[in-house]
Structure formats: structure tokens, C-alpha cells
């Protein structure tokens, strides 16, 4: 990963057609290197219709109705995170801004989106990578998405963009903020960043995240200066049992909650929330192999609840991802089939996502 700071503005150099083509070849090579070096075997989805999004769905949270959109673009350039198979639904090759704009047009023609458009309070935009990486998600396509949201979603109070921190540039944040200001009501920008593991050693040396804690903190400062929000994605127990026992998985999230609570206290104006995804053994990843060879036990929902309960002391909003997205190998999910306790805990966590009410867990053992 490059080590430039977030605050630098990179002068945009106009490339010749040949240079542009060479750059695209380089980017594909970079993706393939990351894929290879992290031991992944999944394919890319190069045959998806480039004028259609990967998917979209609705979620309910404390912030109201959320529209979650995943657009089809070139894959994440980092690629190295163990257990992540998101790029398998992206293209290895460049997807043009025209095609991405057509995906946005398609979205805002869907009857189920138009029917709920007046109730949508938050939009989360993902491309299974970094929407602020201009190589894979051109800025024009991003601005076009914002203007379409402005036009169709009169109650959009938050727009969340998923991105690695190295692509978060002040100049782009500023332009996005101005574009958002043209909507019906004030809209806050939120940047969602995958931290995955709190323990920095595991995050770097086992998970392969390439995200030093100091970088996370300087991004928190950068967003606070603009009055924007930050959401941190963590995974619950994303590494093999030898690196993380059940107790250590709970400890790791307790550490994250305490750390981010401290950051919020220290950096005035910062607003941070946590999105916690229980891990599943995703197809085509070394974690799936570890699961088959009994070196990885998927998380237990009772442990996830134990981790989340710690948040009560810190007042940091926590949303728990409860969907394995059908990407897991058989039996590799955190939801154990026919397990009554799991069904009950799923219900409690879904309710907690909507209310942040810790009293829901009072009847459970510690
Ligand atoms: S977790 Fe994010 S940064 Fe890491 S490989 Fe997956 S998409 Fe890329």
C-alpha cells in the first residue's frame, strides 16, 4: 500500500491514450498480484452486465430506512485481506463511468425503490472495494450518483461511502459535500472503513489489512474537521482458531469499542459508529480451507452478543451484520441451522440494531 497521507492533494495529470491503457494493465496486474499473494482461489465476475448493479437491498436501523447499493466496478486493488471474497463479484477489468452511471439510472427506475423513495433516510454505497478510489470508481460516476440521490430521495440525511482510508482526499470530500448540499434536506457524509481486527499485529500480519492504527486515527481527525462521520467495520473472529480463541474474539471487539470511544473523547467533533460483522467461512478463501480442516470455528452468536454488550459504557452506536450473503461454504456460517438459541439471538440483535436498547440482553447470562 502506498504511504501518502490523507491530506495531500494529488495533482491530476492528463494521460495520453497510450498511458491510460498502460495504467489499466498495471491496475489489473496489481489486482492479480494481491489475489495470488493472499492465496485466494476465487474468480472474478467478468461476465456481469456492466449496466446493472451487483445488488441493492433495504435495511432498518436506528437511523430509519436504509438503501444499501452495491455497484459493479473493477475489483478492489488491495485484494489481500484474508477471508474477503467480495472482489469475486467485481470485474477484473475496468468498468467505464458511462456504465456505472447506467447502473445508477437502472436503480432509480426500480419500482420498489421509487415506492419507498420518500422514506429512505440513509444510502450506503459500496462497490465491494473503495468508492473513493478513482481508478475503480470514477469521480464523475460518484457525483452522478449523488445528484440522482438528491433528485429522488428527499429525506436522505446520510450518505455513506465505503472506502479504504488512503483514497479519502480532502478535495473530493469537499466537492461531495457541496453536491450533497444541493439536496432537499441537509445530508451528512459518512465514510465507512474496514478495520476488521482491533489487534494491530493480527490485523497486519495475519489478516493482511494494510491499515496502521495511526492511519485510522488521522482519518478520524480529517473527517472531524469537515464535520463528517466515520463508521468502522469490524469482523467478529475473522482468523483461524490458533490466532484467536472464542474469548480473544470477544476481547478484540471490547478493545475496539474502548479504543474508538477514547478517539471520540480526544478528537473534538468526531462522530464514530461500529458495524460488526460476524465472520463466515467464505468460499474460495483460506478460511474456508481452514474450516474444512477443523482449524477454524465460525463465531457463536452468544459470543457476538457478549462483545456488543460492552458498548453500553461507551455510547458508541453498534450495528451487527446478520447476513452471510450466501457466500459461505456449507456449515461455515455463524448461524447454525435448526439452532433455536441462534434464532432467538438473531431476533434480539435485529431489534438491537433498530433501537440500541441494551436492556434487550438483560435476561441473557453474562
Ligand atoms: S476487505 Fe476491503 S480492502 Fe480488503 S480485500 Fe476485501 S474489499 Fe479489499
Protein described:
This protein is α/β, with parallel strands linked by helices and 366 residues long. It has 2 domains: 147 residues, no CATH class; 170 residues, pyruvate-formate lyase- activating enzyme (Alpha-Beta Horseshoe). The chain contains 11 helices and 8 strands. β1 and β2 form a beta hairpin. It is globular. The termini are far apart. The N terminus is likely disordered. The chain binds iron/sulfur cluster. The site of iron/sulfur cluster (SF4) has 11 residues, from loops.
- Based on the structure given, which CATH architecture of the largest domain is correct? Alpha-Beta Horseshoe
| CATH class term of the largest domain | Alpha Beta
Mean pLDDT: 92
Kindly state the number of beta strands.
8
Which range does the strand content fall in?
5-15%
What would a concise description of this structure say?
By secondary structure, this protein is α/β, with parallel strands linked by helices.
